[in-house]
Specification:
The structure is a homodimer. Helix content of chain A is about 40%, strand content about 15%. By secondary structure, chain A is of the alpha/beta class. Chain A has three domains: about 5-100, Arc Repressor Mutant, subunit A; about 110-130 and about 385-495, Aspartate Aminotransferase, domain 1 (Alpha-Beta Complex); about 140-380, Aspartate Aminotransferase, domain 2. Chain A has an eight-stranded mixed sheet, sandwiched between helices. Chain A has a four-stranded antiparallel sheet with strand order 13-14-17-16, covered by helices on one side. In chain A, helix 1 (about 15-30) packs across helix 3 (about 55-65). Chain A starts with a strand and ends with a strand. Chains A and B meet through helix 4, helix 5, helix 7, helix 8 and helix 10 of A and helix 4, helix 5, helix 7, helix 8 and helix 10 of B.
């Protein structure tokens, strides 16, 4: 056993994972844990210490970010030697190294998120954590009919390879949907992707090709983008937001300093904040991006989920300079499980984008593309969207009402005009959203912590709540539990004792 | 009009695209075409010159690779200035630049391939070019039944988000298939991907993270890998093949010189050569890779398509060092259009691979995963495989017989023990496969030229023929046409006149 008794101070203000990391760091630096020592598997150590595995994983990630440990393929986490040296012609060491330069964020956010999601899925937990739309509105029967129609009509053709750019009639249907939004677009300008995420990935592959690329993001920003940037070692440059979205007044300076490859922005019903960018700000953004020749990637994932008024014109529809890429999809509005999104790019780039799509996964399932096309042609989509909007508006309002009733007075939020998220801010001087999460999970309620959405490590005192995924009575119950957890945490924090040294006993 | 008359010398041994490039290069270098001049769109110039668009595209790519022209978003191809200079604080030029550092191969191969594929799909053309399996064996009805069963059983759950790693019962079914091949694997070791290509892409994202990564490939090699490496700026280091596959005796030196992140290899029924690596060579490969700690990515796409004897043990099944990644799929053996493949990796890496999968497209269609699972559980798969093997064996033999009858005596090939490709070599001193292609397309027959499969620009005198995609009578007719085109080309080459200066008249 690695630790006979590492007594963690559960009431201390220092996070548990940092306590574990502190202890290991001390032992590594003192030489007690020698270079090449294998640390226990995270599951094993978590069990020994009686903590969540996420705690150990984060402790190891902390040490890896500091260069004190390294992870190896098929092997485990090892203590890094203080001065590793290999003669240049010596073969590299065995077992295979993964490289210890895994960016820290990848673990801090993506990994923590995965673990939190796992906790959130435990039975009995009411979860506002995921970005999942409500299952009850997915038109299962209409899709079953569409698939059957397609297979009867097209037979094996629907299951064979085809153009990487996508099934032309679907591209045409999507072009029509976009033309209705005053976007000048032809079917041939549209690339079908495996969901909106892949549209973003492919755009980055083409525009941010170098490791030294920088990308402008909203601060906070969609987690899936930050993880993608991290995994591709692209530097996200966060621009603060105000109640009108990205602070365009700060953009010029950032462009001049960082020479970004791209500006990524979600003007409608932003994830995670729910903020909508007004028309004037959109025009200012386009103007400055065009002036400096920086392309914009506009994410329209939530555009059709508006509750108060029709959405404002997209950046793409206002783009006269030919610099806007638009990524959209059907996962949040219609059905996540067929994995279909699209990318509209300046025409000149279309061939290169299609070639890039082909290198990632050859093509998107032609069966699913054809089924979506058949569904869109059936005329059900506008009716479906109205149903979903009505239901989500009701849920949003139910959550707002419950928050008003159950949350402590310190909580602060804004009503989003669309989308599926509510962003709640906690006071800066009090406990963090992570602490609230760990308290709340004992009350069987979960959410997303704000800091996972931050490029710069901010928003430790914010939480994101998905109001769309649960029916109103569950929302009411979940918010009641969360309010209770929050109040309990506040009561605990107020009786916080002074930090004292961790009591650690080692075998 | 850009050229009033650029007279191309169609009988010359210099390729047409090089003639076009030569002419443009001369005009750029002489200053006749000034910096920032926009070249005509490739479609327009191709029409003017009466050549295939692929010719112009390749001419521009040639010049782009030489740094003489550059492509810009939404704009076109422009002559690059001889000495571009911008003061450091000056904003970048407008319109948006795509970067002129697009690797040359991307255009030379991937793009040429796309254009050739387009030609090959014209009506009346018998095509041996694509990597497509035969449509007539795709079990459409069984899949329709499987999808309906799944939707009836799981409802909206089959269309909702789920674990990025994949639908667990499918991972379990695949683990069983692999266990039957003596691979020690659990369901949790398997990551479901959007086809085998994505399994390769994800492995590269994790193991070859740096732009300076090098990757060992067979020479020649799967085109989709080379395009992927090119788009990610990873350097492919080709190792020659002999009739036993990758020359392992040359590997040590290459590893020491290039320190590759990974060795990519297709031991069974290699694409494009059809070669199978014998057991002794497999063991030698594993031994040397383990000694130097270089992971191996084994592509098993064609493993189930064996015609003469059961396939040899996979590298994964022989791997005692925990260094083999195995990528496989169902596109060539069962159904391309549901886009499902898988990756088996050393367990320690599983979490990181799943996180990476999530950044690329969140998850693979759960509906398609569940349908494949239901199909595999139905017990039809082994029967289907036997049907396909029998049919493809007949097609292979029909193609071999037709080649024997119709090809010129100079042609040279080997009988593949499996897979779907025949690799044919032309004499080094004669016309190239590209010239043969351009002659053959007039006879309404198409194939893939060897050089697109080469990391180092070799195999200009080789062609790849897919024998699986057409029924035997079409194979016989297509090979007859190809033989005729080949003989015509040989007759033409023998009367070749000496090169003379291109006759170019400019407006």
């Amino acid at each position: 056993m690695f630790f006979s008794r590492l007594e963690l101070d559960r009431d201390k203000s220092r996070a548990l994972y940092l306590q574990v990391a502190d202890h290991l760091r001390q032992r590594i630096e003192s030489g007690d844990l020698a270079s090449e020592t294998r640390l226990p598997a995270s599951r094993v150590l978590a069990k020994q210490l009686g903590v969540n595995r996420v705690t150990v994983v984060n402790a190891y990630a902390e040490l890896e970010a500091e260069g004190l440990v390294t992870t190896r393929v098929g092997s485990g986490t090892y203590v890094t030697g203080p001065h590793q040296s290999h003669a240049p012609d010596e073969p590299p060491p065995i077992p295979v190294r993964l490289g210890s330069s895994q960016p820290r964020r990848h673990w801090d956010a993506g990994h923590m998120m995965t673990e939190m999601m796992r906790l959130a899925r435990q039975p009995g937990v009411i979860s506002f954590a995921a970005g999942t739309p409500a299952s009850e509105f997915i038109p299962v029967n209409e899709f079953r009919r569409a698939i059957n129609d397609v297979l009867r009509r097209d037979g094996a053709e629907a299951l064979q390879y085809e153009e990487a750019a996508g099934y032309f009639p679907l591209r045409d249907s999507i072009a029509e949907l976009l033309q209705a939004q005053a976007i000048e677009v032809k079917a041939s300008d549209i690339l079908i992707t495996a969901g909106c995420q892949q549209a973003v990935d492919i755009t980055l592959r083409v525009l941010a090709r170098s490791e030294h690329s920088a990308l402008v993001v909203e601060e906070p920003c969609y987690l899936g983008l930050l993880d993608l940037l991290s995994s591709r070692r692209i530097t996200p440059v966060g621009v603060p937001m105000d109640e009108q979205g990205l602070r365009v007044d700060q953009l010029e300076q950032i462009i001049l300093r960082h020479r970004p490859s791209l500006i990524y922005v979600t003007p409608n019903f932003h994830n995670p904040t729910g903020i909508t960018m007004p028309l004037g700000r959109r025009q200012a953004l386009l103007e400055i991006a065009a002036r400096y020749g920086v392309p914009i990637l506009e994410d329209t994932t939530y555009d059709e989920l508006y509750y108060d008024h029709q959405p404002l014109p997209t950046l793409k529809s206002l783009d006269t300079a030919g610099i806007v890429f638009q990524a959209g999809g059907f996962s949040k509005t219609l059905v996540p499980g067929i994995r279909i999104g699209y990318l509209v790019a300046p025409s000149q780039l279309q061939e290169r984008l299609v070639a890039t799509k082909q290198t990632t996964d050859i093509l998107t399932s032609p069966l699913n593309q054809r089924a979506l096309h058949a569904y869109l042609e059936s005329g059900h989509f506008p009716i479906h969207l109205k149903t979903v909007r009505d239901a989500y508006r009701t849920r949003r309002d139910a959550m707002l009402a419950a928050m008003q009733q159950h949350f402590p007075l310190e909580a602060c939020w804004r009503c989003p005009a669309g989308g599926i998220y509510l962003w709640v801010e906690m006071p800066q001087h009090g406990p963090t959203a992570t602490e609230l999460y760990l308290t709340a999970i004992n009350y069987n309620v979960a959410f997303s912590i704000g800091s996972v959405f931050s490029a710069g490590g901010y928003f430790a005192h914010a939480l994101r709540l998905n109001f769309a995924g649960c029916p109103p009575d569950e929302i009411e119950e979940g918010i009641r539990r969360l309010g209770k957890a929050w109040k309990e945490l506040l009561a605990r924090s107020n009786t916080l004792v002074e930090p004292r040294p961790a009591s650690v006993h080692i075998l």
